[in-house]
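Possible regression after last week's pipeline update?

I re-ran a chain I had predicted before the update to compare outputs. Posting the input and the new output here so someone can diff against the archived version. Not blocking, just want to make sure nothing changed silently.
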Amino acid sequence: MLFSFRLVYLLAVVTAPYRLAPTWSVPLRPIAAEQPRPAKAAWQYESKSDQISGRVDKAILAATNVVQFPYPYAGGSRVSLILRNRNGRTNAYLTTSKGLFTSSFQGGRAQLRFDGARAVTYTLIAAENGSGSTVFFDDDQQLIRQIRSSKRLTMRVQCPGLSLDELHFATAGLHWKQ
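New output (post-update):
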């Protein structure tokens, strides 16, 4: 019996460095379930000028929540709403920190609800440069008018094979002259 005790003790000492971490863990809160941050004016502005592109002005607003794109873009992504004026032409588009809206873009839509009003649907258009992380809105001017007169925006983006969680934006405080 003393021999079997020594054998068990010896095996425990020898195998201790190779043991795996405990199987218990603390449950993590999913990123997609993150609550939106309190609404505040969070617009950021950029203005650049060069000889080739001319002047480019942007107003950038990050969503107040994080969304999950499908594999391999796990870990949560930030989506930003950007208003851009380049050479007198204004565009409104979405871009993501990581993830693709779709690899072959056709038939994308976004449902937007401003300050709790009835939802409005916009068609989304693929970026001309083929970037899957950027999609443009079809009616820029109407969208900008709605953003200017609102405080909050809730958006749901739907593309073939992709349906994101709701995006929340605090739209109050936009200073856009274009």
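Follow-up from reviewer: compared with the archived run. The chain has one domain: 41-170. Marking as no regression found.
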